[in-house]
Amino acid sequence: MTFKEQIQEGIPAVLPQPKPYDPSINHAPKRKEMLTADEKKLALRNALRYFNPKDHAELIKEFTEELENYGRIYMYRLRPDYKMYARPVSEYPGKSEQAKAIMLMIQNNLDYAVAQHPHELITYGGNGAVFQNWAQYRLTMKYLSEMTDEQTLVMYSGHPMGLFPSHTEAPRVVVTNGMMIPNYSKPDDWEKFNALGVTQYGQMTAGSYMYIGPQGIVHGTTITVLNAGRKITKNGEGLAGKLFVTSGLGGMSGAQPKAGNIAGCITVCAELNPKAVHTRHSQGWVDEVITKLDELVERVNKAKAAKEIVSIAYQGNIVDVWEKFDTENVYIDLGSDQSSLHNPWAGGYYPVGLSFDESNHLMAANPAKFKEEVQKTLRKHAAAINKHADRGTYFFDYGNAFLLEASRAGADIMADDGINFKYPSYVQDIMGPMCFDYGFGPFRWVCASGNPEDLAKTDAIAANVLEEMAKTAPDEIKQQMQDNIKWIQGAQENKLVVGSQARILYADAEGRINIARAFNEAIAKGEIGSVILGRDHHDVSGTDSPYRETSNIYDGSRFTADMAIHNVIGDSFRGATWVSIHNGGGVGWGEVMNGGFGMVLDGSKEASRRLESMLFWDVNNGIARRSWARNDEAIFAIQRAMENQPLLQVTLPNKVDDTLLG
């Protein structure tokens, strides 16, 4: 069968032969035992409903073994034989160009060079899934190959509910992930209901088909490290010779060493998983790998003396690094952490003193003991950070729930008031007031042609647009503009592409609209092929997350989720090609609501109208909410937006004289 025929086949009428478990692939750890005997039967019933009853007797033994061995039913047998990657959009079968673009993005999320656990359909974060199983993948791709522009595909946590009649202005796909009743949104609820096959953790851009590899976070991390450096340096001296220590080389965290290089510092990033270390090193995202602490100390001291720009992966536990640098008196300038602590009990964070394999065994065999060891490690981790902070290290929480889980473990991480943490979230200190409140966030695009030349042309278009805008930009956002111009000008030389021909660029609403409009005009002229717009959910308006994206909302509303819900609803009727809303995101199940979109530009007048309407709302919804929280930068930004768009009228806050409050 050709590739197109395999896509159109969906779930095969004749079952393919079982596929052997491939130990060379980076697999998800075994999930802990959560189901009763009756619930296991229910999980099997749920899995078998995808198949003709004639195949049930053959599959039930296999699915039972998967549930016992891995804690989930992945249906490995149905894994396609073709190579998984983002093909040029013209290679996909279908009646809708928009649907073909979505197929491209789905396959990009599952590309072996992109996905963390590709055989388990997990893109990043240890549990950020595109689908729960391979039957869902096959059925979804079949639906997309059949749909017209007058249908909408409805996705329930990885399950394609079906194609429904709609209209050309409607989204082609509407995605929800993990939308639980609030009282059933604790971590063990995810374990149970995911094992049953009725929900999944879509992370942010995994289950919304908009992950573009580590590049997706490189830019945000670069901006974060640059601005963190500006807090500890004077007179623009830069980060030469300064040391940044962090951890995690998985899906999102794998961006950190590359960002450190671009920011111009020395980066040490610890990672226990040898396959993750090998992947990032082989891809050129980290310069060197060291496995011994004494060698690491020697190498860092040499780099400091020479003021090198270098990134080093330490294959081992991050706690050992913090403690070793303390005893050896290695000064750390910047510190953070990006292990997947939204997922602490199932592979997101590993205990000190145990190997990677020992930890994976313990988390399934004795979850209570594993949790005890993780919490003990978090206490040690925090204690080591505190010692360095006392010497002057600037430590910031990078939104991975490190401080939250450390506090739950009883670590010495709370401020004197007993309410707040000792250390700021990077959103509170850096990204919130410097970027999000002004409307700057992770705008991204993918060249659907798969042609690197198209990506180079879009880079040049974006750079020209920003340079022109910078000439008249207000002083309040000149630094943001210059950082982004520098970024896009150096994007090609930094070799950021993994998987699809994609780019990310922090821009405000005006910048996003101007860039998208320029792309659409270039498509209309035949200069480039179609372009898929999107963004990370980690943005101005898409996410309500009290310990990350909205941690700098101080009016008491940071625990509400109206903004994210309105964002997705508004995008859906303003022209998005697909929309998604998730429970979970980067800080944990039950801790955040986050929404995203995708939009296909085809050079048409309709695409031009849609991009202007949708992108304006997608950003300014969040600025309006932030301005109502009395954030000065957001008040400035929304007033500027109202001046530029007469149809926009936003309720502004009146500030209270503090002396009246006593």
TrEMBL record:
Keyword Lyase attributed: yes
Domain Urocanase Rossmann-like, first and last residues per copy: 213-430
Catalytically driven reaction(s): 4-imidazolone-5-propanoate = trans-urocanate + H2O
Domain Urocanase N-terminal: 84-210
Ranges of residues in domain Urocanase C-terminal: 436-639
Keywords, ordered alphabetically: Cytoplasm, Histidine metabolism, Lyase, NAD
InterPro entries the UniProt entry points to: Urocanase, Urocanase-like, Urocanase_C, Urocanase_central_sf, Urocanase_CS, Urocanase_N, Urocanase_Rossmann-like, Urocanase_sf
Entry cofactors: NAD(+)
Locations listed in the record: Cytoplasm
Location (main, coarse): cytoplasm
GO molecular function terms listed in the Swiss-Prot or TrEMBL record: urocanate hydratase activity
Keyword Cytoplasm among UniProt keywords: yes
Pathway involvement of the protein, from the record: Amino-acid degradation; L-histidine degradation into L-glutamate; N-formimidoyl-L-glutamate from L-histidine: step 2/3
PROSITE patterns referenced in this protein's UniProt entry, alphabetically: UROCANASE
Enzyme class: lyase
HAMAP family: HutU
Protein's job: Catalyzes the conversion of urocanate to 4-imidazolone-5-propionate.
Family per record: Belongs to the urocanase family.
Protein name: Urocanate hydratase
Organism, as annotated: Flavobacterium litorale
Organism ancestry: Bacteria, Pseudomonadati, Bacteroidota, Flavobacteriia, Flavobacteriales
Gene responsible for this protein: hutU
